[in-house]
Structures are given as structure tokens and as C-alpha cells.
Design brief:
The chain has 154 residues and is an all-alpha fold. The protein has one domain. It contains 6 helices and no strands. The chain has helices at residues 3-24, 29-41, 45-72, 78-92, 102-114, 119-152. The relative contact order is 0.22. The chain crosses the membrane at residues 25-43, 121-144. Pfam families: DUF1097. Keywords: Membrane, Transmembrane, Transmembrane helix.
């Protein structure tokens, strides 16, 4: 079994479990998958986990700022103006090392908008999704190593 097969197998198992459990626990399943995707896209391992979580939550924050501005300021094109300003901020914050995974910020933001501003549910699902990704990766590595060690002892 090669490493990609091992990772694919453990990812399939744990994502299936997430899919089954998340809805029954009242969690947003797709937002969890967004968090899991962020984990892998950020490079995986503990560094990717930190980057994914921090940038996802940053995106949630910026989406809520945008939503609140649009709720309280009633001028023409406020949505477009807010989008432009917040988009700039979400990109430029990448100058800060721990916020330099721009796609993670956009994943958090878009997820918040898609959930109609339910930021608490989105934040929780994104964090759990990051944990899901970490579990998928670490168990895939473990499975590969266990099976590879067995093959080398023959």
C-alpha cells in the first residue's frame, strides 16, 4: 500500500464518520469539510493546522465585520464598498506570518456568508474540520508506516 492510498483510505473513513455525526450533532457538515480542506491546502501537519485555523477564523471575523457594516450603514453600494475594503484587508493581512494563508481567510469568510452569518456554528465546524484533517493525515501516515514496516520484515 503506498502512502497516497493509506491517506485516501483513512480520509475516506474519517470524513464518512464526520458526515454521519456532524448533522446529528447539529454541526454544519460542509463547513467542517471546508476546514478539513483548509488544513490540507495549508500544507498539513501542525504548521498547516495552525495556519488553516487562524486564517479560517480571521475570515469569519472579517465576514462578520462586513455583515455588521452593511446592516448599520445605509448608503448606496455599501455592500460593494465593504467588499472592496474587507477583501483588501483579508489579503494584506498576509504580511503577518501566521495569517499568510490567504485562501484560508477566504474560506472562513465565504463559509460565514454561506451560513447567513451564523459565525459561531461556522467557527466551530471549521475548527473541527481542521482537527478532522489532522486526524486523516496522521492516521494515514500511521497506516502507511505500519503496513510498510510489515512489508520490510518479510
Amino acid at each position: 500500500m503506498d502512502s497516497l492510498f493509506a491517506l485516501s483510505l483513512t480520509t475516506a473513513i474519517f470524513c464518512g464518520i464526520w458526515s454521519a455525526l456532524s448533522s446529528s450533532l447539529g454541526l454544519i457538515a460542509w463547513a467542517g469539510f471546508a476546514g478539513c480542506t483548509s488544513f490540507f491546502a495549508a500544507g498539513g501537519k501542525s504548521k498547516g493546522f495552525k495556519k488553516a485555523i487562524l486564517t479560517n477564523l480571521s475570515g469569519v471575523f472579517w465576514a462578520m465585520i462586513s455583515i455588521k457594516i452593511c446592516q448599520y450603514i445605509e448608503i448606496e453600494h455599501i455592500g460593494a464598498i465593504t467588499t472592496a475594503v474587507i477583501t483588501f484587508i483579508m489579503c494584506i493581512q498576509a504580511k503577518i506570518k501566521f495569517l499568510d494563508f490567504i485562501p484560508g481567510t477566504f474560506i472562513g469568510s465565504v463559509s460565514t456568508f454561506a451560513a447567513s452569518g451564523n459565525w459561531k456554528a461556522v467557527a466551530l465546524a471549521l475548527i473541527l474540520g481542521g482537527i478532522l484533517g489532522y486526524i486523516c493525515e496522521s492516521t494515514g501516515i500511521w497506516l502507511f508506516e505500519v503496513l510498510n514496516k510489515k512489508d520490510n520484515t518479510k
